[in-house]
Amino acid sequence: MSSKPDGHRISSRLDGVEAARGIAAVLVAMVHATGLSYSSRPDAGLPFGGLFLFAHAGVDFFFVLSGFIIYRVHRGDIGSPHRLSRYAWRRFVRIYPTYWIILAGFGLLLLYSPEKDPSVTSLGNTIASTFLLPRFQRPIIPNAWTLRHELIFYVLFGLLILNRHLGRILLAIWAALIAWNVTVTMWAGAPFFGGLLGYLPFRIFNLEFFFGMGVALLLGRRAVWCPRLLLLVGVVIFLGDGLLESFGPHVPIEWPPRHLG
Questions:
Q1: Contacts of 95 (CB under 8 A, 6+ apart)
Q2: 137, 161, 207, 225: which one has the fewest Cβ atoms less than 10 Å from its Cβ?
Q3: How far is Cα 127 from Cα 140, in angstroms, rounded to an integer?
Q4: What is the pLDDT of residues 29-44, one digit of tens each?
Q5: Which DSSP state fits 3?
């Protein structure tokens, strides 16, 4: 909490962000529910006529949100190497303990219902899945693929804390290479970087971290112009893009304009 000069207290928590986080989580749950329902009863068709096919956009929102929160919370740490250990510990606690508990529970389930593809639970993939190491193969818990992207972002932001100038250079190079890969994908129909590079560090999702950091930067400078209008325009674009995906012409799931929209 902080105080205004007139004595009124204001909350440092952004209620709009908290609400949007909940909406995004519901969207992700709905797209998975849609897939599970259709796979179990394809004759019944898609639930709600396929309305929630676009709801994986909640994942995109979480990538933007991660960039926003990391910059907003740790911008004061940038260029302060003595704060790196605190940053690293907070990022570790944020991800690994809860993830390991869920992974252990999932592992117990696999004892009774093994994976159809034994390579998923191979020793190499088990180690990579446990520590969220870069690997082209999906992790044992499929949804943990997002955490691998998070860790790359955490490491590069950590370099920004270690050395402001080095971190800026590396983040700028990373953003440029992602943008290049996305541009080539859009115009040529195939990514410039193949294999693990295209699958993980230069994938379009990583560009969304920069969107989030940009919003945090503008908010910190009080440089957001007509916020209510921007909110309205953003909601219209988000929902319009979603309806177009759910009911419009089919395009690849990672088609860049749709993700950017």
A1: 132, 147, 150, 151
A2: 225
A3: 10
A4: 999 898 888 888 888 7
A5: E
